[in-house]
Amino acid sequence: MRKFIIITLAIAFSTLNSFARKPNIIFILADDLGYNELGCFGQKWIKTPHIDRLAKEGIKFTQHYSGQAVCAPCRCVLMTGKHTGHAYIRDNGDPKDGSTKHFPFPGQNPIPDDEITIAEILKTGGYTTAAIGKWGLGHFGSSGDPNKQGFDLFFGYNCQRHAHNHFPRFLWRNNKKIPLPGNDRKLDGKIHSQDAFTEEALSFIKKNKENPFFLYLPFAIPHLSIQTTKKWLNEYKKMIPEEEYTHRGYLKHPFPRAGYAAMITQMDDSVGQVHSLVKGLGLDDDTLIVFTSDNGPTFNRLGGSDSDFFKSAGVFKGLKGSLYEGGIRVPTIVRWPGKIKPGTTSDHVSAFWDWMPTLSEIAGTKAPEVTDGISLLPSLLGKKQKSHKSLYWEFPSYGSQQAVRLGNWKGVRQKISKAKTTAEIKTELYNLKLDPGETKNVADLNPEILEKIESIMVKEHVPSKLFPILPEERLRARKKKINKSN
User: Fold this and answer.
1) Are the beta carbons of 117 and 140 closer than 8 angstroms?
2) pTM higher than the cut 0.85
3) Helix (H) or strand (E) holding 15
4) For FRET with 272, which of 141, 360, 421, 473 sits at 20 to 30 Å CA-CA?
């Protein structure tokens, strides 16, 4: 009922605020792309000319944050506009409560029926919607089925583990399995998923060129395994010095660094194809394109990716799975001809939960009041922008973590799971203006700032049965599990 009321209000608001031509919205989400892995953000080895062009013709956000340090929760934050202290999905993981027991397919915890997604809001404004790529918020038939969460079309991977293979034997189009014949080999195959996503995206744009559309492109690159086509691999094989990958985890690639760089350039080419078609159809001035990443880069040499060699996180500390800057600060670009001044840079502090109100306002619809976000439209248009009082994250894995951004200050809690009580947890404090690499903990020198940050951690955290994080919550969850088994 609540969902019905919110969507009805959004429809009424859209009716009152309709435009002659609502802009098309293309939201491109890279997978595990580091802050420093694009040419326009400082990368020296990897070629990204098409994405660099978006930055040259649009605005670059240098202090934009993901919703989380790993895949599924960041997508939940993006879709619902709620930070991880409020979001339903706060970590990766498969259902443990039987919520998908009637649907015998692998997949992550589904977002519930009553969640309002950005796709549902945009549909109230007359948008045709598509999600093409990696979903990770519930398989078809579950409550998180993208077709039940506002998307007219879904094509890609429902399950994130399925997306670890870029030459899959099948993908999903809505609730139908689409075979990809010829994908029998591990490092190579006939149809790369990135090429399949690009083809599907181009088809969707052509079919919907007469009406406003929302095209969500959560690509699976450059998430491991390292798999690309010979065309892109050959660009780097002789250019990048190699070091053999001898560790376990994912596929072993004979040219791991070249392969990793090639995947990013392959994705860049897809971005170029989408942009070229938009221009070719005369939709350029009516199309907003957003490019960003779901979290920081993959851990050092896992799968051969080698974040140290590429300096994937730039000057920042931490990688994927960490709430330090390297795990959650992500490269972000927005292009909108005639609205955004070309070649601009913004240091406005923002996050994934801002996209719900931003895209809602752009589309002339009304975002749910429960969102944690603030519309970024003023920043896009070069106007005065309202700022967040603070940003908050929590992550129940990798030792359990919490983080707060308060002005130039950043508070981080690590290894929460080792504490027996909340009172035992230590909070680190960094001044990002003076120390963007989070190298000097100044908590002891700034007790008042530390107290403010810890009070925000208390205020913004709403306990989750699925994802307990504080010691007392974990203890209650363990006791409940024991009682249930008895």
Assistant:
1) no
2) yes
3) helix 2-16
4) 360
